[in-house]
Structures are given as C-alpha cells and as structure tokens.
Specification:
Layout lengths: L11 E5 L5 H10 L1 H5 L21 E5 L2 E9 L6 E8 L8 H15 L4 E6 L4 H9 L3 E5 L9 E7 L4
Parallel strand pairs: 4-5
Antiparallel strand pairs: 1-2, 2-3, 3-4, 5-7, 6-7
Length: about 160
Amino acid sequence: MAVDETIEAEQLSISPLDEVDAREMRDFLLGAQKNFWGDRDLSGDHDAYWFRQFVTSGLVARYRSEIVGYLLGVIPHDGPAYIHLVAARTDFRHQGIGRHLYQHFIDHARQLGVSSVQATTMPESSGAISFHSSLGFNGELIEDYAGAGNPRVFFELKLAED
C-alpha cells in the first residue's frame, strides 16, 4: 500500500483468531515478523499458548483478504481482560487498524461482562502511550513491573463500575 493511500473501511474485516488455524497463523506471523515489527525481534512474545489456550480472544484484521494486523489478548471469566500484543503491517500503519482491533476486543470484553481491559508498554514507547490514552485508558508508570529494572506503563480502561 502506498504511503499516502488510505484504506477503504468497508474492505477491512476483523475476525476472531479461532476462525483460522492458529498454528498456521503463528508460523505466518513469526515468518512475517519484519513486516509487522521491523527490526524488533518479538518472536519470544508469540508463545504457542497465545495461539492455543487464548486463541478465542485473539483477533485478525484483513484488508481485501490480506492479513494486515492482529491482536493477541485474553478475556477471562473472572478478572480483567488483557491485551498482550497488537500489530499492524508496516505498510498499513496509521490507517486505524490497531484502533479497530482494540475496539473490537473492548466491545467483546464488555459483552462478556468484564469490568476492565488492561495492557502494558515500555516507558519509551511514546506512540503506544498516546494511542492508549486516546482510547480512554489511564496509564501509570510502575517500576520493576516486568522484573527488577524493567518498568512498564500499565494501562487500564474501566468498562463497568466495580
């Protein structure tokens, strides 16, 4: 897709990850990692369990049947929903793919009666911090969140009053 091109919204579809073969999807995403994450190696964040136990909460974005984005998350029966990863293919960035994936996930969590959706990011990820804030998430920097010396910005979006 050309840099100055915009997508036709009616050509974008979001579907549950369980509608595709999860193992094939994992293999595809690991093979296409550079198209989604550039030079960042996030293969360790694509553990097989995200494509097995949590597959029904994951989402795939397709534009004209091409995979252009995905979201890995979990919506448990008790406790908050959690978004682990979201990505848009580099040639589809800034087209609202991530926003559509998040909104779909949030709507599903709300329908299931979940009280909140949580996510984390690195403190230096200003784009991710702005993105979450624009969706109404409240963020807080927590030192050592991911272990000693590994702070994260913890986000939470309240869906229902406790």
